[in-house]
Amino acid sequence: MKALLIVDVQNDFCPGGTLAVPEGDKVVPVINNLMDSFPLVIASKDWHPKNTVHFKKWPPHCVQNTSGADFHPKLNASKIKKIFLKGTRNKDNGYSAFEATSADLGEFLKEEEVTDLYIAGLATDYCVKATALDADKVGFETFVVEDAVAAVNKKPGDGEKALKEMAHAGITLIRSDEITKE
User: Fold this and answer.
1) Which of the residues 86, 125, 129, 134 is marked catalytic?
2) Annotated catalytic residue within 45, 127, 129, 134
3) Is 92 among the residues known to form the active site?
4) pTM for the full predicted model
5) Cys-Cys with 130: which of 66, 87, 96, 178 at CB 3.0–4.6 Å?
6) Which domains, and CATH codes, for the chain?
7) Annotated active-site residue in 8, 46, 125, 134
8) What is the pLDDT of residues 71-121, one digit of tens each?
């Protein structure tokens, strides 16, 4: 079975947020259109405590129980079966959804008999990349939906570099219009 994993499409990562990904909100309609192509849709959320060490590297973002940690308001969250919270402890960075502390993502996917994992969301050069590389390491056929991700680009070109790194690791880069409904 195939599943769609939506990574961190949260207010703080979209325009107006405290760690906004340029044009991060542009992935929302693409992801909403994709959801009907998958029998299983799940998501991850950054869910940081106020005093995490993660905020030594990044501005405060996606703080637990704040509007910044909510999904983007136009994301069709009603189709999400399960949400995996990551970065939940003071010493957690929580880049990969496989580092979720709310539930074991790998175990959940295996229980659901997922073989093919499609990844969309934010940000290409951090959480999407870390999640895709971990998915590949634990044995899932891993796809990143190129037109459903956006990069922070802390340095110009970081997003493209991340896509190349993922492709080099054996992850398939695919566009949303190439995905067939199951």
Assistant:
1) 86
2) 127
3) no
4) 0.97
5) 96
6) 2-178 (3.40.50.850)
7) 8
8) 999 999 999 999 999 999 988 889 999 998 888 999 999 999 999 999 999
